[in-house]
Amino acid sequence: MASTSDIRKGLCIHYNHDIFKVIEFLHVKPGKGPAFVRTKLKSVTTGKVIDNTFSAGHKIEDVRVETHKFQFLYSDGDDFHFMNTSDYNQIRLNREVLDSPDLLKEGEVVTILINSEDNSPLSVDMPASVILEITHTEPGVKGNTATNATKPATVETGAQINVPLFINEGDKIKVETDKGSYMERVKE
């Protein structure tokens, strides 16, 4: 058993007869009244995100998890196939379990949380950023740079990302996986 002081991003807990992963949390201590923890929880079975508030000191039932490195092999419709980098066992996960499946390219190494009680995969943690190549974008209009202007671009995985006007097809960019946003251009 854990309490609200143990809540952190990535923690998996039993709540409402399901297993949820904490995506965001905020400890709040109002001037008047008791402290509480505001959380955003994502179901690892359905992918549904809910908001919940726990009062300070509330007991929560955490799930024992193991982390393993897996390499993304390929996607087959809504199924994504991964291989354990240590023992080469393969698993298949549904698209719903992944936080940002559009940014996952073949060969990418991710961390998968596995429930140690029944060895079922709970969630996939992407790296903080990924490097992707631009496959299609319109050329930027010269002289339109007075503001922080962006244009849509398609990357090699098929995801749409807004990039600055100076980015061209064939450029490699670093993308933040949490927000799916452009970070910087990568020089070879």
UniProtKB/TrEMBL annotation:
<dbReference type="InterPro" id="IPR020599">
    <property type="entry name" value="Transl_elong_fac_P/YeiP"/>
</dbReference>
<comment type="similarity">
    <text>Belongs to the elongation factor P family.</text>
</comment>
<dbReference type="GO" id="GO:0003746">
    <property type="term" value="F:translation elongation factor activity"/>
</dbReference>
<dbReference type="InterPro" id="IPR012340">
    <property type="entry name" value="NA-bd_OB-fold"/>
</dbReference>
<dbReference type="Pfam" id="PF09285">
    <property type="entry name" value="Elong-fact-P_C"/>
</dbReference>
<dbReference type="InterPro" id="IPR013852">
    <property type="entry name" value="Transl_elong_P/YeiP_CS"/>
</dbReference>
<feature type="domain" description="Elongation factor P C-terminal">
    <location>
        <begin position="130"/>
        <end position="185"/>
    </location>
</feature>
<dbReference type="InterPro" id="IPR013185">
    <property type="entry name" value="Transl_elong_KOW-like"/>
</dbReference>
<dbReference type="Pfam" id="PF08207">
    <property type="entry name" value="EFP_N"/>
</dbReference>
<dbReference type="GO" id="GO:0043043">
    <property type="term" value="P:peptide biosynthetic process"/>
</dbReference>
<keyword id="KW-0963">Cytoplasm</keyword>
<dbReference type="InterPro" id="IPR001059">
    <property type="entry name" value="Transl_elong_P/YeiP_cen"/>
</dbReference>
<dbReference type="Pfam" id="PF01132">
    <property type="entry name" value="EFP"/>
</dbReference>
<dbReference type="InterPro" id="IPR014722">
    <property type="entry name" value="Rib_uL2_dom2"/>
</dbReference>
<comment type="function">
    <text>Involved in peptide bond synthesis. Stimulates efficient translation and peptide-bond synthesis on native or reconstituted 70S ribosomes in vitro. Probably functions indirectly by altering the affinity of the ribosome for aminoacyl-tRNA, thus increasing their reactivity as acceptors for peptidyl transferase.</text>
</comment>
<comment type="pathway">
    <text>Protein biosynthesis; polypeptide chain elongation.</text>
</comment>
<keyword id="KW-0648">Protein biosynthesis</keyword>
<dbReference type="InterPro" id="IPR011768">
    <property type="entry name" value="Transl_elongation_fac_P"/>
</dbReference>
<dbReference type="GO" id="GO:0005829">
    <property type="term" value="C:cytosol"/>
</dbReference>
<dbReference type="InterPro" id="IPR008991">
    <property type="entry name" value="Translation_prot_SH3-like_sf"/>
</dbReference>
<dbReference type="InterPro" id="IPR015365">
    <property type="entry name" value="Elong-fact-P_C"/>
</dbReference>
<feature type="domain" description="Translation elongation factor P/YeiP central">
    <location>
        <begin position="67"/>
        <end position="122"/>
    </location>
</feature>
<keyword id="KW-0251">Elongation factor</keyword>
<protein>
    <recommendedName>
        <fullName>Elongation factor P</fullName>
    </recommendedName>
</protein>
